Please model this.
Amino acid sequence: MSRRVFSGVQPTGTLHIGNYLGAIQQFTELQQEEDCLFCIVDLHALTVPQDPVVLREATLKTAGIYLASGIDPKKATVFIQSSVGAHAELAWFLNCIATFGELNRMTQFKEKSTNQETVSSALFTYPVLMAADILLYQTDVVPVGDDQKQHLELSRDIAQRFNHRYGETFKVPEPKILGVGSRIMGLDDASKKMSKSADTDLNRIELLDSPDVIRKKIKRAVTDSGRDVYYDEENKAAVSNLMTIYSRFSGDSLDTIQERYAGKGYGDFKKDLAEVVVEGLRPLQGRYEELSREPQYLLDILKEGAEKAGAIAEQTMKDVKEKVGIVRL
Ligand code: ATP
Ligand code: LTN
Model:
């Protein structure tokens, strides 16, 4: 029996190679064997202020990138979070289970709320909506980047607590976190993850960046002291990150890369890395271009996805309401 897989990506900014290597590439592998749902989590994006026009565009762009990356709507269900009302509805029930104390321990909330003038209450309860996304579909496996580990742990705790209080209702999901490349670091600062919300776009290579922009960004990427290309996360964090990117796009092992650049400097390595990334992204960019010529196709896929996901969600909501004591009319 195939397992149920669920994951989500926020439609904020353009996806970068960290999202691709940390998350989306796994999605395309998982869809071959498993029963997958891939979601564009627009309600999560709203936890910080968004321009409505930009949000709508970014939602469709993210869906386009999903498909261009090789997610096949015949194999996986692709949909927008807000198109299935049960996400927000279940989040309420789970907010009544999650505690203030455990949400207060979420490191991502601390990072995202520091130095902000105002912080929405939704940013605080964000992980509960994420738990709702996952639990709604009786998910077995959640493929995510390393930064989501703590949120996944919370989803499991919430599921177990609900089950304990009301009787078996939710499957307790397992995280699936990639080893190499599960955390791609910023090109401008290798001590922080590559991020859509970093201040400068020199931080990241976006999946739709042109070859010239990719070359420029890699040329300007920070390196470490010394001039040798070798893997040492502690003392050579920046170069190790670039080697990881090289390895993931080319399929070459870190050892092979190390041997290839022995005695050569950062310059040669970076030049080749740029070409590896340009070539690695070329098929995806070509498919994205094709998709943008038929916007209705994308909307049809998303509509169909919402119907499929909605049917599963409805079953869970029925059970949840019954268990907690909601009157059925
Ligand atoms: P932001 O940095 O603005 O919070 P994000 O880049 O983390 O956004 P999300 O939409 O929150 O983007 O993440 C989508 C998926 O990509 C998640 O599974 C996340 O773990 C993964 N991911 C995000 N950044 C990285 C990264 N630098 N390396 C590996 N995986 C990542
Ligand atoms: N919080 C995640 C995005 C996300 C997600 C999910 C991932 C929202 N709901 C459910 C997996 C499963 C993030 O910021 N990367």
